[in-house]
Amino acid sequence: MAEREPRLKDKVAIITGAGSRSDGVGNGKATAILFAREGAKVVLVDQEIERAEETLADIESEGGIASVIEADVTNDSDCKYVVDVSIKRYGHLDILDNNVGNSFRETVIEIDPDTWDDIMALNVKSMMLMSRHSIPHMVNSGGGSIINIASISGVRASKAVAYTTSKAGVIGLTIAMAADHGPEGVRVNAISPGAVYTPMVAWRLSKEMREHRQNTTMLRTEGTPWDVAWAAVYLASDESKWVTGSVLTVDGGSSVMSRHAYLDG
């Protein structure tokens, strides 16, 4: 059998939030590693450059090609800088993975307005800013793929009002950009993860909480960042060339699971 061609060979990808907290692997780091394994040249963007450099070391240890840019992706000039430097280094841009995000578990009464603004800036505005600077270069190259990391919280209630609102906004942004730029060859899709065990949530999850998360999925397991990363590989690759404006749910079936029918099963 002939050796499989790397799915992202010769493509250039920017990934925001490409580092990981502590010693774990988050969605951004896992995606960066898989993109590089599939042949992409990967630009690792993070406000904490040490985290991105750890991802870079992992990629280079496997023979992959990547580079690091320190940036605050809630800042328009930083986003322009990221894209401009990426084009200067690699000549073109094919993939943008808008992964960066954060969450606070507060109600509308509890949340501080400044915290609300910070979450909206990081979770939604950053995606708009990175996209607005990336799309013209993708159009010039004949098209591209933008992947926005949303959440199943964007379409159902959760005890985190700003996070839920922001992820609903990500889905709306995805659909709007797909409609606007599809005729130019730019595909825009979202991934909505469910109960994925990442360094961002690990610190606040007890053993009992993790067991509950597992029991609210049809597969009775938590997801991993690699599950999200493989979904991103598909949406970044030519295998999804007729997929745009879609939300790919990666949640072990939890968002379509009937609580009463399955929790005791």
Q: Could you explain the architecture of this structure?
A:
There is one protein chain. This protein has a seven-stranded parallel beta sheet with strand order 3-2-1-4-5-6-7, with helices on both faces. The chain has one domain (12-203, 224-258): Rossmann fold (3-Layer(aba) Sandwich). With 265 residues, the chain is α/β, with parallel strands linked by helices. α1 packs parallel to α2, α1 (27-37) crosses α8 (225-236) and α3 (76-90) packs parallel to α4. The protein has nine helices and seven strands, in the order βαβαβαβαβαβαααβα. Mean pLDDT is 89; it is low at 260-265. The protein is globular.
Say how many strands there are.
7
Instruction: Summarize the main sheet.
Output: 7 strands, parallel
State the separation between the terminal residues, measured CA to CA: 43 Å
Shape: globular
Amount of helix: 40-55%
Please list the strands of the largest sheet in the order they lie side by side. 3-2-1-4-5-6-7
CATH topology: Rossmann fold
Multimeric status of the protein: single chain
> Residue-averaged pLDDT, rounded?
89
Structural Rg: 18 Å
Q: In what range is the share of β-strand residues?
A: 5-15%
Low-confidence region ranges: 260-265
Total helical elements? 9
At CATH's second level, what is the architecture? 3-Layer(aba) Sandwich
Q: Topology as H/E string?
A: EHEHEHEHEHEHHHEH
Q: Output the CATH class name.
A: Alpha Beta
